[in-house]
Design brief:
It is a single chain. By secondary structure, the protein is mostly helical. 68% of the residues lie in helices and 0% in strands. The protein has helices spanning 15-35, 41-48, 52-58, 62-84, 90-105, 111-116, 123-142, 152-168, 171-185. The termini are far apart.
């Protein structure tokens, strides 16, 4: 007699449910790039050709939708951070990491507010980001490349401020201010950001 499953079995999602989810993510990405993270969820559902209940079935909150959109981008960002953490020049690595995170966070207007709001759906990504910031500051501090008592939390705050600035000013002005902040933070001045 075959053994009976002892716990609940997990069904594979239906093909149409997977298609709906992918359409919702694609339309949310487009809407958030055009209108920011405050874009209408009803509008996103309409653009995807599904009912709002379908959107909420996949993503019960706005933060859950944003977290799903960021999942793949976060994997690429964190892999880049891991590679940078091995760079022999800790000052250059730290500056490049900051610029990469700022570009990532500025992808959608309003994303910095979502990240700083501390939504539980985004907490795992924020924890990973914080750990990498600590790693970069510890390494740069041990190498004598940081001025003062700069912490990973300082770096995280700087990145949020720079991303917010990028959303509300020109990219050039935001990058200029970031270069000034990094020059003040680092004992060795990194090269300015490439245009």
């Amino acid at each position: 007699m075959p053994a009976q499953p002892t716990g609940p079995t997990r069904r594979r999602p239906r093909a149409d449910a997977l298609r709906n989810r992918e359409r919702l993510l694609a339309e949310a990405d487009a809407a958030f790039r055009e209108e920011g993270t405050g874009a209408s969820l009803e509008g996103i559902a309409r653009r995807a050709g599904v009912a709002i209940g379908t959107l909420y079935g996949h993503f019960p909150t706005r933060a859950a939708l944003i977290a799903a959109l960021l999942e793949e981008r976060n994997r690429a960002l964190f892999a880049h951070g891991e590679r940078l953490a091995e760079d022999p020049d800790p000052a250059r690595a730290l500056a490049e990491w900051v610029r990469a995170v700022v570009g990532h966070a500025a992808a959608y207007q309003g994303l910095t507010e979502q990240l700083s709001a501390g939504a539980v759906e985004l907490s795992e990504s924020c924890a990973a980001l914080t750990a990498l910031c600590d790693r970069f500051t510890d390494r740069a501090g041990q190498a004598g490349a940081l001025r003062g008592d700069t912490t990973g939390a300082d770096l995280f705050t700087l990145m949020n401020a720079a991303a917010w600035s990028r959303e509300h000013d020109t990219r050039e002005q935001a990058d200029r201010l970031l270069d000034i902040a990094l020059a003040g933070m680092l004992a060795t001045t990194p090269p300015p950001a490439c245009g």
